[in-house]
Amino acid sequence: MPQGRFSETIGRKALAKPNVKPSNPCFSSGPCAKRPGWSPSALLGALVGRSHRSQAGREKLAQAIALTRTVLCPPEDYQIAIVPASDTGAMEMALWSLLGPRPVDVAAWESFTSDWAKDIVEQLKLADTRVFQAPYGALPDFHELNFNHDFVFAWNGTTSGVRIPNADFIPVDRQGLTICDATSAAFAQPLDFAKLDVVTFSWQKVLGGEAAHGVIILSPRALERLESYQPTWPLPKIFRLTINGVVNGEIFRGQTINTPSLLAVEDYIDTLSWAQRIGGLPGLIARADETAKLIEAWVEKTPWIEFLAVDPATRSNTAVCLKFSSFSRFETDAQRRDCAKRMLEMIEAEGAGYDFGAYRSAPPGFRIWCGATVESANVAALLPWLDWAYNHAVAD
Q: Mean of the pLDDT values across residues 297-318?
């Protein structure tokens, strides 16, 4: 590691304000930056004012599902549906509809995975549940997972920037279901569908779509569970995937449970079409990787910052989470949090970057979204502003 990581000059001069600003300063982790070249004209084909139950409306929803399959490449016998309430709705649908007949193992290492564990234990009240926990920056130990149990986990921890490097630890011949929250991984990281029975995400993440809609992908094993098991608890309408004990196949052909926004669906179709033009899934992954590597190079030469992810193999290429290092000029989290707040305010006031603060329950620092719709040049332009803001914040 370069010597510059171990020293910081005391009493240095204030850095000059950078000359270049990102052309798109949006670095939120959801809703994320729109695709390059996006404008409202991309939505001209939207069926505004039309019913989603009309033939034309259902065709639009079916088109969105078909393009999802083409770009994301799940197996042909996996079924895809657009569901209410973003990734949260898709995950809750899976938990409430599928869990119960087997013990449950849950991996929790950041806020949303902790929420799933809490819901399973406190809302569904499944007593035979084991929670495998790890602090922000690390993954739980997966060695004691029992794959005769159902397993609930995230592929990528959106609020910690920690992802699983692969699914090698999951056996193909498992007895339980694997339920994977992939919302900040889908379209930016390769998902091993052979190891996954349920995959959920929202298109507001890697594809920069508008919020409120979720997607759920179900394997044949998950579909069989829906028909062989009836939960003992009441199931809200927006979670129901079956009718009289039989899977509602119309859901997978665009017959949504509730009313979707056809404007948002048009936006999703537009971005999926853009994804095809840039090389499909490999092209999307390459864009996220390229952008995340820019931050890696900057962290390597910047003494006051470091990755929240402890193990380089687990660093996210989408939700890139950073914290103040031991070489920064702060001794307490309160000081670090105050500095991060001032830096964010300074950069936002300059119009050089928006919405990239660390998640509220994460260690003080920053979360820079590097999903496929973010241009690497914009991240490269943001980084000098972080240096400038830190230099001024510690000098005050």
A: 97
